[in-house]
Amino acid sequence: MPMRWLAVPALLLLVAVPALGAECPALLSGSLPKLHAKESIELCQRYAGKPLVVVNTASFCGFAPQFKGLEALYQRYKDQGLEVLGVPSNDFKQESGDGAETAKVCYVNYGVTFTMTEPQKVRGASATHLFKVLAEQSSSPKWNFYKYVVDRQGNVIANFSSLTKPESPEFIAAVEQALASKP
Asked: Record's SUPFAM superfamilies (predicted)?
């Protein structure tokens, strides 16, 4: 087979790879370590084209009972494609420094089945990329359990303070809007 015939598939591969990367919204670039696990969550692979709720959490915050509401929301809408991503953070000094303790609070105390990450920075210059983009599209978290609703294109369509419970009508309406968004 002549060498030029081998060059064509290689050239097509080089052209196709950047196109695949272009489909991933900036919000979902990169990966985060999964809570109390050896694996990482490839954000684009896991969440591209899906409606998503992102919430910064803290195990020892007075709003921690919202884990139950977030889990109920996830169970209610997961068959329609909703994903929930919990991102523990000690930015407000209410998270354990021990991933095992954070995992116990989430998985044992509150029965969380949605994806949780290892603790991350969620505010300021040292915030993880996900939260930098969330802040650019809306605002930085003001406290723990600040909730972002993201549509299937990776755009924040609403954000909610810690005071807004996961079962509130306004929050549910935003989630249903994200579910109705086109990929």
From this structure: Thioredoxin-like (SSF52833)
Question: Which CATH number characterizes residue 81's domain?
Answer: 3.40.30.10
24 is catalytic: no
The pTM score is: 0.87
Mean pLDDT of 140-153: 97
Backbone angles phi and psi of 180, in degrees to 5: -80, -15
Percent of all residues in the chain with a pLDDT value above 90, rounded to a whole number: 84
The candidate with the shortest Cα–Cα distance to 119, out of 137, 110, 131, is 131
- How does pLDDT run across 67-111, given as a tens digit for each residue? 999 999 999 999 999 999 999 999 999 999 888 999 999 999 999
Catalytic residue among 24, 44, 61, 106: 61
Structural domain includes residue 7: no
Residue 35 belongs to some domain of the structure: yes
Distance set, CA 116 to CA 32, 40, 53, 155, 179 (Å): 10, 11, 12, 21, 21
| Cβ-based burial of 93 (10 A; exposed 0-12, middle 13-18, buried ≥19) | exposed
The pLDDT assigned to 92 comes to 97
The CA distance from 130 to 122, in Å, is 8
Could you give the CA distance from residue 22 to residue 20 in angstroms, rounded to a whole number? Answer: 5
Q: From 169, 129, 140, 147, select the one nearest 55 (Cα to Cα).
A: 147
Whether 161 maps to a domain, the answer reads yes
